[in-house]
Amino acid sequence: MKRREWIRNVAGLGLLLAAGPIDRAVWASELSEPEKVKTLTLSGVKMTWIQDNPKERRMPNKIFSGADSRVIDELSPEGGALATVSCFLMQKDGKTALFDTANGNADSLLLPALEGLGVKPADIDYLFLTHFHGDHIGGMMRDGKAVFPRAEVYAAKTEYDGWMAMEGERKELVATTMKAYEDRLHLFAFGEELPCGIEPMDASGHTPGHTVYRVGDFLVIGDLMHGAAIQLKRPEVCASFDMDQPKAVAARKKYLAYAKENQLTMAGMHLPPPAFLKL
Ligand SMILES: [Zn+2]
After folding, report:
1. pLDDT at position 34, please?
2. For residue 41, what are the β-bridge partners?
């Protein structure tokens, strides 16, 4: 069977990626064209992937380092690894939460997608943030105001402290956003139990307090990978966005192994569509 035919055949089987060759994620992503929302329910946790970017998005090969560029080009032959800017809606125990909020650009799909799912911004009980880059917290603000009027916000204390210690412009968006939510901002230590039984874990490296969250059989991995086609095979490769690259590599290796060992479904903010991945 030719690869293209195989791709067409697996399309009908749904896009949750079962155990098997790791680059199935990339194959699957080639088919899911119009689909920008997908819900998976595992052991009572309903997780919906929401793609924020309206058009196809690739991470250019040139932002990756840590392996020979020929190796990178071979793993990502189109000059850029297929990716997304995504966030995830979680419904569990009668509560509604978002993991990250994407970038809040004028053409962002998050709010229209929530509306399509029948969820209003005021319905969001919790926001769990993986880190403070603009493509993760940008959607928290619109026209200088908080978008989610009731949401209690959870972020790692090390992330907050790390950004506050940065100079000038870099932290501007972080400072205004956190100020807008200050009366309902909760800064946690790794390992603390959060609402809905969510467990935040230390995946720092990408940013000072980059967090992955375990909830049931899901592992929300934030920015553990920017180019899955490259980094699943070569986890030592970093995107230029990784602030502390040796730590980012260690975190990537650790949580990929952890997810595989525990048979968790990863939900990743830059995984290719449908942004769920099980190894
Ligand atoms: Zn990101």
Report:
1. 55
2. 46
Whether residue 19 has pLDDT greater than 80: no
Paired strand residues for 60? 80
Q: How far is the CA of 89 from the centre of ligand 1 (A)?
A: 17
Cα 40 to averaged position of ligand 1 atoms, centre (Å)? 22
pLDDT given for residue 4 in this prediction: 35
Q: CA 12 → CA 38, 144, 207, 265, distances in Å?
A: 15, 44, 38, 20
CA of 196 to the centre of ligand 1 (A): 24
The pair of three-digit structure tokens given for residue 161, joined into one six-digit string: 């402290």
Query: What count of Cα atoms within 13 Å lies in the side-chain half-sphere of residue 252?
Result: 26
Query: Structure tokens of 272?
Result: 């290719």
4 C-alpha to ligand 1 centroid (Å): 30
Under the banding of pLDDT at 50, 70 and 90, the label for residue 36 is: confident
Record the tokens describing residue 166, joined without a space.
């940065």
pLDDT (mean) for 102-126: 95
Cα(66) to ligand 1 centroid in Å equals: 19
Ligand 1 centroid distance, CA of 1 (Å): 36
**What domains can you pick out in the chain, each with its CATH number?**
3-277 (3.60.15.10)
